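Model: Ready when you are.
Researcher: Fold this.
Model:
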Amino acid sequence: MEGVKVFAKKGVPGKWKFEEVCKNEMTREEVREISKEIIEETSIRQDGFIELERRGSTIVQLGNYRIVITRPPFADGYEITAVRPVKKLKLKDYKLAEKLDKRIKEQAEGILISGAPGHGKSTFAQALAEHYASQKKIVKTVEAPRDLALPENVTQYAISHGSAEEVHDVLLLSRPDYTIFDEMRNTQDFRLFADLRLSGVGMVGVVHATNPVDAIQRFIGRIDLGVIPQIIDTVIFIKNGGVEKVYSVLMQVKVPAGMTEADLARPVVTVSDFSTGKIEFEIYSYGEETVVVPISEEKSSCSPAKRIASESLQTAFLKYSPNAKVELISDNRCKVFVPERDIARIIGKSGSNIDKLEKKLGIRIDVEPLEENRATEERKEILSFSSQITKKYVQFMLVENYAREEVDIYLNGQYIASSRVGKKNILKINKASKVGKILVDAVNKGEKIEIKI
């Protein structure tokens, strides 16, 4: 650029360095002269062409160099930026996982390649195009500018020299197996990609994105939400020249994560980790908005607040059924599992008991029959212990170390409670609690107490 020294950005994705090329500052006349020489060279070389010419900028493709020339009034001075591919790779050089390699070769026909600028998106798209061409597939590209270095049997179209309608008509009439759409930027590009994909053309799109889900979000608002999974089936995120993350996109009718009512079921676009199948994002309509919700792994068993609430509810239902089990679904709803014979007593006449409990506990309660699985009970390990009654607690000192483990307490073969072993390997039950009173009485009478894990 005029008024500054010439610098070069050297290296590979993830290992760039900025180096000074010459010590003298460039004058406006020098930059203008170099610009003129570039344009003249382009006009006489077979591998050179002007991709885009505007009042304040010119984009030139000269060999494998993409050269951007800017000038006033668009820029505050004359500037030349030349970019060339750092390295040419084949698909096998990426050492893709077998599952992804199979998906690309046999199934995926709506691929998004995303990543930050300079991380190797176009290099991967180029490798993909060459792979499809080597498999005797008809491959064409849509670029702006045309800077992918591809073999002669791959035709490259410049959308900057034709309208979206022209590109659409040419591609449908020539019927390629795959089309590589490099650098999708505006709404027109995204709609053209969607239209071609829905017409049955295998599409590979390249988009700028700082994380994989951002690539999908760029379609939201431009096309209908329900159409997205028909257009995109695989999202490949490129970082530092390699494949860092792969997502699979599907449409399901389900209750979105975090909602509990069955009547809230709706079409949901699920974005799953391709290797594990775990859903990481859900996209759905909420009112008049389209929301993208990250799905975090449930850790209810590790949440102290949730565990205490569950234990309190468990205690509240023990007076109705000694075998009651409580599952806390959300902050305002729980499920209570009891033997079928106890359900009527808990619900009460016309639901009077359950209504009182819901008001008292401030939570919605669903009562369901408890399915007793004897095989599971038989697999539980019975722990050895000694018992002791202190001023405040009935204590069970375990022989082996099960500190901080959750255990079940049985009296005469009947489950009565679950609790967590303390850090000193002692299970303490408050004597003042309902369960504590039962256990104190049982210890004094020498009844059969079992602790299982």
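Researcher: Now this one.
Model:
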Amino acid sequence: MFKRVLIANRGEIAVRVIRACQELGVETVAVYSTADADSLHVQLADRAVCVGPAKAAESYLDQMAILTAAVESGCDAVHPGYGFLSENDEFADLCAKCGLTFIGPTGDMIRKMGNKSAARALMKASGVPVVPGSDGPVADAGAALALAEEVGWPVLLKASAGGGGRGMRRVDAPEDLERLFHEAKSEAEACFGNGELYLEKLILSPRHIEFQILADQRGNVIHLGERDCSIQRKNQKLVEESPSKALDPALRERMGAAAVAAAKAAGYVNAGTVEFVLAADGTFCFIEMNTRVQVEHPVTEMVSGLDLVKEQLRVAAGLPLSLTQDQVRLTGHALECRINAEDFRHGFRPCPGKTEFLHLPGGPGVRVDTMLYNGYEVSPYYDSLVAKVIVHAPTRLEAIRRMRRCLSELIVEGYPTTADFAHLLLYHPDFVRGRYDTGFLTQHMDELLAWDRGEAPRPAVEEG
């Protein structure tokens, strides 16, 4: 096992990785920007190094600054978390050149799978069903327009190096494509340091189903079941759960087998997520593979009893997976609500500010991943995610009731959050009965806001 690991990230995921390292007896080095000098991950790590000013491009995306911090602090490995440099093949290559283990796949694997357009081409060649679209990156807006006319409108422009909905735009008509192409390209360059885009036919209102993959250096590949991430707003996931009500055992087995086949086709190593769109008729298509730990990984941890970050560390250190596929036991139901510093009553406007008071929920089957503490200043420079509330219970209904209780207990004073929005959602009859897809919020947002304003009664849900 490693002696000392640098965490090339911030916020709740940096805290999450530090805790896993501590439990394995591994020392940690945090990096931080000047805006994050008082952040929790800086306080919890054994050592912290400032790598630049507030702007991510000058700190958390500064590869040389982070590598210098890792080498000079005597680290033997780097954990990238999610976002920032986590799917940057160049950074993974540079870690290796500096004698550092990148806790994730190699640069070559990221080029195969982390680069979304390259992954599509590989899956297509390997027989895994893919959504119609480009075989690789599109060179410019003109090429994107020609392909969109071929596959049919609407289409999605997506960042090849992207994730989390960044660098993604829906295009409904030809006259909008050039503008949205440049918007997506600029956002991708700012978020990932790579403006490459690819194009897909937009499958309207599917379920978004992803399978968690683990693979070691000895050729062992397993999956840990699915997560349903269909509750989204502008391609940003808000609620995730496992298992999905949309899958029966036979479909789950087929999709899991396809996910494992996808990982094996790439010779994949470490943790990853294979994402599919699932149509109402049960057909599914590969859309991308995320070559990193996901924001929603706690959902899988709750149903599997496995610590995914520790498994990442084990695999990167050359150790085998701690279990085989036939030893995987998925029990109960898990649900995660992302809590963002946003005002959902005004278009989910980001609302950074000082955390004047904080109270976190607890009790059986409850977990909260956060970097918040009383007095913590939420920065305007980074993503608005401030906490994740995760629950586990024997049944889906019990998990929903437990989450309602937790969101009622959660208190964050100083700025608006999306906790009240998530609480409203958990009472919607269609959500309670599992009847939702990626178009759910587009269809029901006005209804949820009317409940919030007291203009319409919240229905008494017949649960069961």
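Researcher: Key takeaway?
Model: Residues 156 and 170 are 5 Å apart (CA to CA).
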